[in-house]
Every structure is written in structure tokens, then in C-alpha cells.
User: What shape does this take?
Amino acid sequence: MPTSTRNSVFWRGTIDAAPFLLVVGPFAILFGIVATEAGLRVLETMAFSVLVIGGASQFAAVSLMAEDAPTLIVLATALTVNLRMAMYSASMVPYLGAAPLWKRALVSYILLDQSYAVSILKFEKEPKMTVNERLLYFCGTMVLVAPLWYVFTWVGAVVGSQIPPEYAIDFALPITFIAMVAPMLRTPAHIITAFVSVVGSLVLSVLPAGTGLLVAGVLAMIAGAQTELWMERRQKQKGVAE
Assistant: This one.
């Protein structure tokens, strides 16, 4: 692949993921604040962000730490919340599964909600991309997002307590997920999946340790898959009738 083509694919990923920079900063600052308020030192907070790099699970873990929850409960909850990454990984296998092991290991580290949402849309729209092009694009989506997450986590941990509450930086969490999900609602199956996941999450929120979210995710995938099957059968029936 020519160098110009590699650079073009890589920076295309960076540009497509750039809108998330508007919310990643406040999101990371908020985590830095919450983590230090839960009793973590700045170094521990930074290690948490660099090693885990998973915002939702990090928030869940430090919230339980603040409540003096047992270590096993903290770990189990963080793992449960991050199990959505297993779903992301499974859906990426058709596009990146042929890559060498070390490249897949790198992808697994930077597989976040943002990188997944942007990349899966690109891969579905352009199925003729090679594996190397997909890897370059995927890495491009994170070349700015990951460093920004680290830097603003540090900002939140060091000076976050001085940020006036009227700035309400906690807006970043819901806005991030809305920005990721909205562009993907392109078919009835996507819409039904989103609807079932939202309703299921609310109804099952009484389950412990975030397991309701996981169950809702499974139910949503089943609903989406059944909708796609129903649509395929309907298309076949129309073809036969014609």
C-alpha cells in the first residue's frame, strides 16, 4: 500500500473521530475528580485510566470504592460493565480477525465505545477495505482520543476540585453515548435494538452490580437479530410474489 494511501486512511479515522474530542475532555476531567474524591492519589488515578481506559467501568469502580465496597465486588462490577467490549470484539472479527496477533492485541487495548462506533460504521459502508486499511483507520480514530483521555484525567485529578459546579461537566457522559448511538440508527433492526436496550436497562436497573445492563444488552441483540430475520423473510416473500 502506498504511503500516501496509508496516511490518508489513518487521518480519515482521526477526522471522523474528532467530534468526540468535545466530550472526551470533560468526561476525563469528571473521572479525575470522582477518583480523587473516592480516595485515589493522582498516580493511582492516572494508572487506572492508562491501564483500563474504559470510562464507564472506571466510574462504576470508583463509585463503589467511595462506598467502601469489597474489592471483589468492585472488580466484578467493573468487569460486568466492560463485558460490552466482548460484544464489540465479536462484531469486529469479520473485519479485523485476519490481522496478526500483536495487532489484534493493540486493537483490544484501544477498543472503546468511540473507536468502535466510528469504525464499525466505516467498515460496513466500505466492505472492500483491506485488513491493513481497517487497522490504520481504527488506530486513527484513537490517535487523539486516547492521549486526550490521559491528559484530562490528570487535569481532573489535580485541579478538578477547583472547577465551579455551575459548569456541570457531567453532561459529557450522556452526550458521548448519544453521539455514538444516534448515527447507527439506520434500519428498523437498529431502532428496535436501541429501544429494547433502553427499556430493558430501565426495567432491570434493580438487578445488582450492573447485571441488568448486561441482560438488557443480550435482549436487545436478540430483538435486533429477530427483526433482521423477519425483514429478510419479508423480502423473500415479496420476491416470490413478484
